[in-house]
Specification:
Length: about 290
């Protein structure tokens, strides 16, 4: 039996090493010559499930979302501090058919999570979680399908002005604003140009920063006073318009000034969708 297990372990290790090699080579091919990140932390296989949608931070840890996961990890990505691998509560799933956690944002001890009844788009929700334990607080808000025609893939909290921003997957030239205290609708923000496939982001210094899944998985900023949209950098250079998500998938981002000079931290899925990585970029913020 021991001999069989040893052989099995060697076979599994060989397969894993091969997959990692192939994944790395394919990822490098699609990334190409784009704005260089300073460092990255990658996870593979099952670990990537809980780090597949978005990332935010409370300044002391990274907090990741997966389709039904929340995970809090030390800033060096070496230690899991808290995890909820069934983060959509049963009562929410049963009442609204909620299936998918998307973008998340942190403010004042709370994680705000965009939750959808994926592919149905009848019940766009914002669920609130305790940032320390990742437990559902019992508080949630349902957004109007009058505005959110195709779900709510992301939410961004501006705690400074007590505003939350959210969008949907269909409209690329506008986002919606809500009072943070109760998610009462207060208006829409119309862009002077489109930003396609926003996956998540953060507010910092009067700007919204977006991670997208557009053709080059680009990162953008929006000055909320002037309305100026700036494309900051691409995450991949390879464009292919016939197949969606060809070359991997760009996810959300978060903002944190670190001692190594990095400020923008992006999450992305690899080309073969078996790995995810957190990349750290140096970028001058306001």
């Amino acid at each position: 039996m021991a001999i069989f297990l040893n052989i099995l372990n060697r076979v599994f290790a060989g397969i894993l090493a091969t997959l990692l090699g192939v994944t790395g080579a394919v990822n490098n091919f699609f990334t190409g010559e784009v704005y260089e990140y300073k460092s990255e932390t990658a996870v593979f296989g099952v670990e990537a499930l809980s780090r597949s949608q978005d990332v935010t931070t409370d300044g002391k840890a990274w907090i990741y979302s997966g389709k039904n996961y929340l995970e809090k990890v030390s800033l060096d990505n070496s230690k899991i501090l808290a995890a909820d691998f069934s983060a959509i509560p049963d009562e929410i799933a049963e009442k609204y058919n909620s299936k998918h956690i998307g973008g998340i944002s942190y403010y004042d001890g709370i994680i705000y999570a965009a939750v959808e009844d994926s592919k149905e788009w009848n019940h766009p929700l914002i669920l609130l979680y305790d940032a320390e334990t990742l437990e559902f607080t019992g508080t949630y808000y349902e957004l109007s399908t009058k505005h959110h025609i195709k779900g709510v893939p992301w939410v961004i909290v501006d705690g400074e002005n007590k505003i939350a921003y959210a969008g949907d997957s269909k409209q690329h030239n506008k986002i919606f604003m809500y009072k943070l205290e109760n998610f009462e609708y207060i208006g829409e923000y119309v862009f002077n140009t489109e930003i396609k496939k926003i996956q998540g982001g953060e507010y910092y210094g009067g700007k919204l920063y977006f991670g997208t899944n557009d053709m080059t998985r680009a990162v953008y900023s929006l000055d909320v006073k002037s309305g100026e949209i700036t494309k900051l950098f691409d995450r991949i250079m390879y464009e292919y318009k016939l197949i969606d998500n060809f070359g991997g998938e760009g996810e959300g981002l978060t903002i944190l000034k670190r001692a190594d000079g990095t400020t923008i931290h992006t999450l992305q899925l690899g080309t073969l969708f078996v790995d995810s990585s957190l990349r750290h970029y140096e970028w001058e913020l306001n």
